[in-house]
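Now for a typical sample entry:
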Amino acid sequence: MTTVHPTELSEEVGVPLYRALVRLSRRLRSTTPAGELTLTKLSTLAVVQSSGSSRVTDLASKLGIAAATTSRMIDSLGELGLVERTPDPDDQRATRVTITASGEAALERLHESGTAYLDIRLAELGEAELKALVAALPALEQLAVNEIPGPAQPHP
């Protein structure tokens, strides 16, 4: 196996991948019916959905933002009827946050519209491009799932 210097890897893969993902993310956001939901609110709602009934502090940790900021975001989502707070049975001082049926429906609409957009764009690709994309999916999924500890540090 050939060793690639981190700077070369960044220039050959990291920078172009980052740029492509940013452009694709922008296009996906522009085609989805977010309504009153900002990207931050959508991300928070998705974390609430995937976490199940959770304390705000646990959600804040998963989101990587302050608990006070998360609490305000949860309050905002609650006002829209997308999440609800309930007393924590283990700690009367705390509450648990869960997604509501309306929150689930909002995320489903977002998923459907994003998938529809991608279906159209994927149909524009040739067979070789589709095969390359399918081959890259496991690596992209690994990048999306595996987190590095602490903030990302650029290579010198």
Observations:
- The first helix runs from residue 6 to 31.
